[in-house]
Amino acid sequence: MFEVVKTTPYNDQKMGTAGLRKKSKVVMQQNYFENFLQSIFNVINPQGKTFVVGGDGRFYNDIAIQKLIKMAVANGVKKLIIGQKGYLSTPASSNLILKRHTDGAFVLTASHNPGGENGDFGIKYATETGGQCSGAVSDKIYEQSKQISEYKIYTADDINLEKLGTQKLGDMEIEIINPINDYVEMMAGIFDFDAIKKLFANGFTVVFDAMNAVTGPYAIEIFENILGAKKGSVKNAIPMKDFGGLHPDPNLVYAKELLATMFGDNAPDFGAANDGDGDRNMILGKKFFVTPSDSLAILTDHYNLIPAYKNGIYGVAKSMATSTAVERVAKKHNIGYYEVPTGWKYFVNLMDSKRITFCGEESFGTGSSHIREKDGIWAILFWLNIIAATGKSVEQITREHWAKYGRSYYMRFDFDGIATDVANELMKNLENKISSLNGKTLGSFKVALAEVFTYKDPVDFSETTNGMRIVMDDGSRIVFRLSGTSSSGATLRVYLEKIEHNNLDAQSRDMVDELLKIAMDVAEIENRTGKKEADLTT
Ligand code: VG1
Ligand code: CO
Fold this sequence. Notes:
7-stranded antiparallel β-sheet, alpha/beta, single chain, Alpha-D-Glucose-1,6-Bisphosphate, Chain A, domain 3, 33% helix, binds alpha-D-glucose-1-phosphate-6-vanadate, 18 helices, 3 domains, TATA-Binding Protein, binds cobalt (II) ion
């Protein structure tokens, strides 16, 4: 039965850096999910269209997917392609959009944010490009959500998401697919699986932490079943609604178990982790951590070792906040180089117009034009492929990179839970004075460029401002921006980079210390937030 249900707007359904992200309890409010989905439908007109649907398995995924199915029927959607049990990693969903030529996807995830009834829930909406919708589209959806008065739904029993194959609900087709197969096939088409198999056969050891989120089943299939890593190499492999209480963010703070293993006695040769929805990655060697910014630079430098890229790559792009390590690699290889605002959606036009092949962000995101999202397992396979081809360790590869290109000491400091108006005031104040810093001496640095970062997309010419940067005349940098993924309050991110060509073996914290003091001072952080130091350092 088709129903039109009256509703009233929530006024907080504005998408951030990557979709809508809220506390689970907020999304559980009456009609909250329905309002948001209908707002999307009202903007995109889903009549006759096909969408991919999945999620990272977190709390409320199952409920939201059933609602989505019934609303899709009522809104005239032609077909939904759904991952079995409702599972799909973000990269797997992007692959399906492109491979099956669908009109987009809905991925139910709050990505690296904790899950559960007291955690976060989220929705990423992607278009036929394979990437998340543009800022212009999400603005329209937000406007819709503020005036929504009804939504359409089809009343029926819940759909069985276990049963593979095609079924019908009303006039809509529902195809339940294995969420892993297409993704595995794509990876096998990019990397030298035989070389990696040999590596494992020769005793190379690895530990992968899926953090009880969506990539466990993908990792078991790829690393253990296909490539032959020892059984049990994949840890926390079963997706859980609350991620077993873990915060599924693969970094030095939250991937505690993995770090203990990799920095302990008898550490395996290689360690890695992904986030909740499988688009982020952390790379570790024996007692050794690779910063995501370095990882992007190193992968780019070694493109010729990978079957899919060995004939040459287009350029490379990074988010502005990411370190400039990859810029030096781009120069050396004489390929295009772009700096975009934070958020993967800004890479999409660059990939579609063949300006770039690789891209990455400091926030543990790396990827290529094989899809239009960052891809955690892709990055890990890339590293394994380099190791298999060179016979070198993670540490050796990274140290050789520093020796050749110099080292960007890099750290990010997050100041969490700031009242929104305090954070906005802080940024406003900084904006007002930022250009006056040009040419000034700050401590032992001289400012070469201080500005609000504005990006003009070379394809659609849209302009986006995102944070501020102070670049010193030795290339060192301070970047300030507010997070667009926190589910409550504001988070100020301060990114610091110090470039060294000779001093390659120092502690990052020591190397960025002076920049941190300058940043605290210039932005009046303590004064305005009461915080003497960051809540989280990655
Ligand atoms: C953060 C990261 C950004 C990333 C985004 C989504 O955004 O900084 O680099 O693209 O999360 O990642 P913000 O606005 O909070 O800094 V994911 O893994 O949540 O899709
Ligand atoms: Co993610």
